[in-house]
Amino acid sequence: MKRKVYLTFPQKLIRDPLIYRVGHEFRVVTNIRCASVTDEIGVVGLEFEGEPEEIGRAMEYLKSRGVLVEPVVMNVIE
Amino acid sequence: MGYVQGLKCRECGREYPKDPINICAFCFGPLEVVYRYEEIAKVLSRERITSRPPNMWRYLELLPLDDAPTVGKDVGYTPLVRAENLARSLGVSELYIKNDAVSYPTLSFKDRVVAVAVSKAKEFDFDTIACASTGNLANAVAACAASAGLKSYVFIPADLEQGKIMGTQVFGTNLVGIQGNYDDVNRLCTEVADKHRWAFVNINLRPFYAEGSKTFGYEIVEQLGWRLPQNVVVPMAGGSLITKLKKSFQELTKIGLVEEGRTKMFGAQATGCSPIVTAVKKGTDLFKPVKPDTIAKSLAIGNPADGFYAIQTMTDSGGWGEEVTDDEIVEAMKLLAETEGIFTETAGGVTLGVTKKLIEQGKIPRDESIVVSITGNGLKTQEALLGRLQKHPVIDSRLDSFEALLVEKQSRL
Ligand SMILES: Cc1ncc(COP(=O)(O)O)c(C=O)c1O
Ligand SMILES: [Zn+2]
User: Fold this and answer.
1) CATH of segment(s) B80-106+210-385
2) Which terminus of chain A has a smaller tally of CB atoms within 10 A, N or C?
3) pTM
4) B235 CB under 6 A from ligand 1?
5) Where are the domains of chain B?
6) Distance between CA atoms of B114 and B316, rounded to whole angstroms?
7) What are B231-258's pLDDT values in tens digits?
């Protein structure tokens, strides 16, 4: 399965190699599609490939570290 | 027929056929409708436009339908009011209110975007329209789906105000309240959209839907006598309207209907939810998502889908962003009502409050043309004024009681 998400890294996490770690600790392939990083905030568009449960665990891990994980559709409520 | 070339990714430029899709499969960028402008320039003229009925479809060639619209045929062409009293109060010379508080049929500019989305949904052969909304969009989708004879699902947060629930439910839609915060509503709707083959106006139909906002800009230009305004102030939630207004001015210039000129685009948000304005002030092109807390609920989008492009629109045009507090919003709603007789919702209070600030700061020059975008109606957000207006006197039914009241009132002047 493939799953596309946006990751938003607050300033204190920008220097942690979290995406690298996710690829090592979980059986998922990560593919960065776009990224924009300033001193204050980092936004990365990422595609996960792997088993659904494994992708879920990888996303939970990122959230537990303080990364905002969102499906690629942004706020759809208007 | 129609003049749509296809869809194109705003980020990487990859092209797609005109299908109900909204993001680029390669880079996740948003898709945008591309037109064959050379052909449009050949067929569309000022005379042609002004000979048509006064509604948003007089600019049909610049909208993403393949055929004539089948629903929402009477939407648009709201008044552009020359606001002399308000101009005097703000100390400026040429001020206009574009008044979508009287948009037909549900009293907000969302009628425009929904008219395009639902007409397009019919072209794509969808039988069900859907959206996730906190108010104005819900009203517009429910009403338009009813008149189109289509089924509709409208998802709202469970704790929405009674007025907005009634103004949606009366149209016979399938209204679903969802427990949890906005993020939860968002997530569920994204999942529902993935699973069901429905026309989600602001998800899979978003590229088409958003084009409807351009008509607000075309009308401003036509109503100014085919002239670009020098300054436009626009309320921002997801940030789509401000980017589409800019696009509307660029298109009219490109096809030769208006002389080249510069319009400074100013974005307005409430202090309790101002991710886009904050980014502009800081000079970055990325915004930080926020948890909204403001009476301007129709603008309370903490993680705006078009935030990045809204920031670009303001900075590239020489404009700026500003914010106002809840108190300033209410004061501005009253100011507009008392000077021009226009009752706008909280979003309009945000826009006018911000306009006032930008004029005082010198960011909007007092001797240039200024258009204030009023996008919704005050009758929908009456809670905002509860306890904010003076209590009126009650008297018995004798004439001398009234005369006594008059004397008292006049002595206070
Ligand atoms: C009354 C009103 N004005 C302005 C907006 C802002 O529009 P956008 O999301 O395109 O920035 C909205 C959107 O929800 C609205 O309801
Ligand atoms: Zn792309």
Assistant:
1) 3.40.50.1100
2) N
3) 0.91
4) yes
5) 80-106+210-385
6) 28
7) 999 999 999 999 999 999 999 999 999 9
